[in-house]
Amino acid sequence: MQLIPAIDIYKNRCLRLTQGNFKKKTYISKNYLLNKINNKHYNRIHIIDLEGAKSGKVKNLNTVIKLARQIRKANPNIKIQSGGGIRNISHIKTLISENIEVILSTTLLTGNQLINIKNYIKHLILSIDYKQNKVFIKGWQQEHSKLTHLINAVNTTNLPKVIFTDINRDGTRKGINKTNITKIIKRVCKKKKIMFAGGLNNTHEFKNLTTCLKTTHIYGIIGGKFLF
């Protein structure tokens, strides 16, 4: 299980939200974040185009790519995953060409979109943002479906990785909700690599989670505000 720092982009600037509320934005210096990341030698970084996630259209693709290249100057082997408003094959191809894994929305599971992207499955990560047993889309602004139903749908796909974000905890540093993630772990197929986000307080909490969840199929814990 690995610790994965998160960077959010909005209007070409780095920031953090609290519980997905765009009125509660905290802007952060990009150089400050890069220094924090480079000094710790992380194995994977999570970058989200929040503006794109909210609008459903990619808004900061060039900024994401530029940031990824800057991160790799210090650590060429680091894994990078990114998403936010990605809906078409051209954007997927662009990110893959930069050796960036692509995070796609829950809406991927509707219609025949999985068929259209089957050749890229190994590079894709499904993102599920939830509050209690409800899944939300469009930058957490619109309710989509029940979490339990969506997990059942995920288990029938070939998608290798899934991210679950607890909206209630995101950006709060109140700690990961272990009760929630334990329930999710039990429902998700063990072949899937699971990542959790929302509420991580500090690296000490991550170490405790590593100990108590070491027998599970968790791939990583994503956090943003613990960096500051």
Plain-language structure description:
With 228 residues, the chain is α/β, with parallel strands linked by helices. The chain has one domain (2-227): TIM Barrel (Alpha-Beta Barrel), CATH 3.20.20.70. The protein has 8 helices and 12 strands. The chain has helices spanning 30-40, 50-55, 61-74, 89-97, 113-116, 147-155, 178-187, 203-212, and strands at residues 2-10, 13-18, 21-28, 44-49, 79-83, 100-104, 124-131, 134-137, 142-146, 161-166, 193-197, 218-223. An 8-stranded parallel barrel has the order 1-4-5-6-7-10-11-12. The model has no long low-confidence stretch (mean pLDDT 89).
SSE topology sketch:
Layout: E1 2-10, E2 13-18, E3 21-28, H1 30-40, E4 44-49, H2 50-55, H3 61-74, E5 79-83, H4 89-97, E6 100-104, H5 113-116, E7 124-131, E8 134-137, E9 142-146, H6 147-155, E10 161-166, H7 178-187, E11 193-197, H8 203-212, E12 218-223
Parallel strand pairs: 1-4, 1-12, 4-5, 5-6, 6-7, 7-10, 10-11, 11-12
Antiparallel strand pairs: 1-2, 2-3, 7-8, 8-9
